[in-house]
Design brief:
The complex is a heterodimer of chains A (269) and B (346). Chain A has 269 residues and is an alpha/beta fold. Chain A has nine helices and twelve strands. A six-stranded mixed beta sheet of chain A has the order 6-7-8-3-9-10, sandwiched between helices. Chain A has a four-stranded antiparallel beta sheet with strand order 2-1-4-5, with helices on one face. Chain B is globular and about 65 Å long. Chain B is mainly alpha-helical and 346 residues long. Chain B has one domain: Orthogonal Bundle (ABC transporter involved in vitamin B12 uptake, BtuC), CATH 1.10.3470.
C-alpha cells in the first residue's frame, strides 16, 4: 500500500523538528531514511505512523488521511517498530507476538483462528518459531529484534515502518535483519526504515531519503543520491563513495584523516 | 530449519493451546483459591467472641429458627465476611492495575496516594458531620479517590505521562494526604477511637448497609478492570509500541486511574486505610499465573479476597474477645513482603 507524506510539519512544543516534508512511498517499495542525529528522521517516522500529531500537513495511507481513521484501524494496515523497545522482558516470544494481534481483536481479546494463523506466519517469517517459549529477556540482541519484528508482522501490515532496526546489532545480525526486511518486501510489503548505516541503506533500499534539519535533503535511488557532495551536505563530514567490487552498489564512507589513522598511506601530493 | 519445520507441522489447535503457556495452571490455582476462601469463610462464620457449632452456623445462615445464631451469623459475621472479600478484591485489582500502568512493581493504591485521598475526603465529612450516613461516606470517598487519581494524573502529566513521574508524584501525594488525615483527626479528639480504627483499617462493625453502599461502585469498577486488562497488556510493552498497535495510551491510563479511584474509594469507605493488599496480591498472582493481565487481574482479586478475609479472621481471634484492626495484619504480612522485594528483587 502507498504512503503519501504531504507538507508534513511536526513539533515538540514550540521546537520545529520536521518542516514541510513531502514524499510518496509507493506500494511495494523499500525506502531508507538517513540523516545525522537530531535531524528529525525518527520524528518523521512517528508522524508517518500516527504516533505524533502533525502541526501541519497530512499523511495518506492509500488514499485515506491517517487522522481520519482510528489508531486501531491504522494499526491493522501499518505497523511501526520503535527504536529498541524495552518492554515485555518477562513475556515469552509467543506471548509477545500474540499481542501484535491487538488491533484485530475485540474488546476481550479472545484468540480466534485468524489470530493463530497470523502469529504462526509472523513467527515463521521472522524465524523465531524455534524461540517461541523463550522469555524476551533471555534472547540475544538479534533474536530479540526478530521477535519484535514478528510482533509487528502479527499485525499483518501492508506498510512496515522501523526505527533503526539494526542498531546495537553485530554485522551478522544486521545483515540478517535486512535480509528479513527484503524478503518481506519481495512478498509485497512496503518497508520504510530509519537507518544509521549508509552501507546497509545503499545495499538494501530501492530509494534513500536524506533528512537534515527537519527537511528532505535528497531523495532517490541509492546509486544516484549516495554521492560525496550530497552526503557531505547532510552529515557535515568529508565523504567518499566507493563501488562495491562485487555488485557495484555504493559504499559511502567518511574520508579518513591520514594524520589520525595509524598505518595510513600518505596521499601523494 | 529443523525448528521451523517442526513448528509448521504443529496443528493449529496445539499452537492455540501453547499460545499462553501458563494458561494450564490458573484453573488449578483458582480452584485452590476458592476452596481456601470457602474454608476461611466457614471459620469466620463459626469463630469469634461467641463460638458457634457448625449446626448453629448452618441454621443461622439459612433459617430464622434460632434468633441468636441468626443475628450473629446473618446480621454480623456474614455481611462482614462479604465486605472483607470485596474490599480485598477491590484493593488487589487496584494494585494490579497500578502496577501495570506505572510499569512499577512497587505501585499500589496506598503508595500512590489514592487510598489517602479517599481517606482524607471521608475524614473531612466525618469530622464535619459525625452523623453522616454510610452512603455519604462512600460518596465522599469516591470523590476523594477519583480526585486523588486525577491529581496524580495532572501532576504527572507533562505532554505525556511517564510511569516514573506517576510513581514519584504518587509517593509525594500519599505523604501529603496522609499527613492531612492525621492532622484532621487529631484536631477532633472525640473521634480518637474511631480514628484509630480508620487509620489502621478494619472491618469492625461493617454490615449489610456497607455492602449496599459499596456495590454501585464495585460493580462498574470490576467491570472496568476486566475491560481495560487487554489494553494494559499492550501498554506494558511501552508507550510507542502500544500506540503503534492502536492503543490511545494517555486515554487508557486515565480510564485505568478512574477505575482505581472508584475501587479504592469503595474499599476505604468501608474499611478505612487498609494497606499492602494492593501491593502483595498482584505479585503473588504474577508469580503463580504470569503477567497476562486478563488472567492476572481476576486472580489478584481472588487473592485479595482471601488475604483480607483471613486477616480479618486473625484480627478477630488474636486478642479475643477484643479485636485488632485488620489492617495491622495485612500490614504485618505486606510490609515484610515489600522489604523482601526491595532487597531481593530490585
Amino acid at each position: 500500500m502507498k504512503l503519501t507524506v504531504e507538507n508534513l510539519s511536526l513539533r515538540y512544543g514550540s521546537r520545529r523538528v520536521v518542516e514541510d516534508v513531502s514524499f510518496t512511498v509507493d506500494s511495494g517499495e523499500m525506502v531508507s531514511i538517513v540523516g545525522p542525529n537530531g535531524s528529525g528522521k525518527s520524528t518523521l517516522l512517528r508522524g508517518m505512523s500516527r504516533l505524533q500529531k502533525p502541526s501541519a500537513g497530512r499523511v495518506l495511507l492509500g488514499e485515506t488521511d491517517i487522522r481520519d481513521i482510528s489508531a486501531r484501524a491504522v494499526a491493522r494496515t501499518l505497523a511501526i517498530l520503535p527504536q529498541s523497545p524495552d518492554g515485555g522482558a518477562d513475556l515469552t516470544v509467543r506471548e509477545l507476538v500474540f499481542r501484535g494481534r491487538f488491533p484485530h481483536q475485540g474488546i476481550l481479546q479472545r484468540i480466534g483462528p485468524a489470530d493463530i494463523e497470523a502469529v504462526h506466519w509472523a513467527m515463521d517469517a521472522a524465524d523465531v518459531d524455534g524461540l517461541a517459549d523463550r522469555p524476551i529477556g533471555s534472547l540475544s540482541g538479534g533474536e530479540r529484534q526478530r521477535a519484535w519484528i514478528a510482533l509487528a508482522l502479527a499485525q499483518q501490515p501492508k506498510v512496515l515502518l522501523l526505527d533503526e532496526p539494526t542498531s546495537f546489532l553485530d554485522i551478522a545480525h544486521q545483515v540478517e535483519v535486512m535480509h528479513l526486511l527484503r524478503r518481506l518486501n519481495r512478498e509485497g510489503m512496503t518497508v520504510v526504515s530509519v537507518l544509521h548505516d549508509l552501507v546497509l541503506a545503499g545495499r538494501f533500499s530501492d530509494r534513500v531519503i536524506a533528512v537534515s534539519r527537519g527537511r528532505v535533503e535528497f531523495d532517490g535511488p541509492p546509486a544516484e543520491v549516495l554521492e560525496p557532495v550530497g552526503l557531505e551536505r547532510v552529515f557535515g563530514v568529508a565523504m567518499m563513495v566507493m563501488p562495491d567490487p562485487e555488485t557495484g552498489l555504493p559504499i559511502p564512507l567518511p574520508r579518513p584523516d591520514p594524520e589520525l589513522c595509524p598505518g595510513a598511506r600518505r596521499p601523494q601530493a | 530449519m529443523a525448528g521451523m519445520a517442526a513448528s509448521t507441522s504443529t496443528s493449529e489447535g496445539a499452537l492455540a493451546e501453547r499460545a499462553l503457556p501458563r494458561s494450564a495452571r490458573p484453573a488449578a490455582i483458582v480452584a485452590a483459591g476458592f476452596l481456601a476462601l470457602v474454608v476461611v469463610g466457614a471459620l469466620t462464620l463459626k469463630l469469634g467472641s461467641v463460638s458457634l457449632g457448625w449446626d448453629e452456623v448452618f441454621k443461622g445462615l439459612t433459617t430464622d429458627s434460632d434468633p441468636l445464631a441468626r443475628n450473629i451469623v446473618w446480621q454480623i459475621r456474614f455481611p462482614r465476611l462479604l465486605d472483607g472479600m470485596l474490599i480485598g478484591a477491590a484493593l488487589a485489582v487496584s494494585g494490579a492495575l497500578l502496577q501495570g500502568v506505572t510499569r512499577n512493581p512497587l505501585a499500589d493504591p496506598t503508595i500512590l496516594g489514592v487510598t489517602a485521598a479517599a481517606g482524607l475526603a471521608s475524614a473531612i465529612v466525618i469530622v464535619a458531620n459525625p452523623q453522616v450516613p454510610q452512603w455519604g461516606i462512600a460518596m465522599a470517598c469516591m470523590a476523594g479517590g477519583i480526585c486523588g487519581a486525577a491529581i496524580l494524573y495532572v501532576v504527572a502529566y507533562r505532554g505525556d505521562v511517564s510511569p516514573v513521574r506517576l510513581a514519584l508524584a504518587g509517593v509525594a501525594l500519599s505523604a501529603l494526604f496522609g499527613a492531612a488525615i492525621v492532622g484532621l483527626l487529631s484536631s477532633s479528639r472525640t473521634f480518637l477511637q474511631t480514628s484509630l480504627g480508620f487509620l489502621a483499617g478494619g472491618l469492625y462493625g461493617s454490615e449489610w448497609r456497607d455492602l449496599r453502599a459499596m456495590l454501585p461502585y464495585l460493580v462498574p469498577g470490576f467491570l472496568g478492570a476486566v475491560l481495560v486488562s487487554g489494553r494494559l497488556n499492550v501498554l506494558a510493552l511501552g508507550d510507542d509500541v502500544a500506540a503503534g498497535l492502536g492503543v490511545m495510551t494517555d486515554r487508557t491510563r486515565l480510564a485505568i486511574l478512574a477505575v482505581v479511584g472508584i475501587l479504592t474509594a469503595a474499599a476505604v469507605a468501608t474499611a478505612g486505610l487498609v494497606s499492602f493488599v494492593g501491593l502483595v496480591c498482584p505479585h503473588l498472582a504474577r508469580y503463580t499465573v504470569g503477567g497476562d493481565n486478563r488472567v492476572l487481574i481476576p486472580v489478584s482479586a481472588l487473592y485479595g479476597a482471601l488475604l483480607v478475609s483471613s486477616a480479618d479472621l486473625i484480627a478477630k481471634l488474636l486478642i479475643s474477645p477484643s479485636e485488632l484492626p485488620m489492617g495491622i495484619i495485612t500490614a504485618g504480612v505486606g510490609a515484610p513482603f515489600l522489604l523482601y522485594l526491595v532487597r531481593f528483587r530490585g
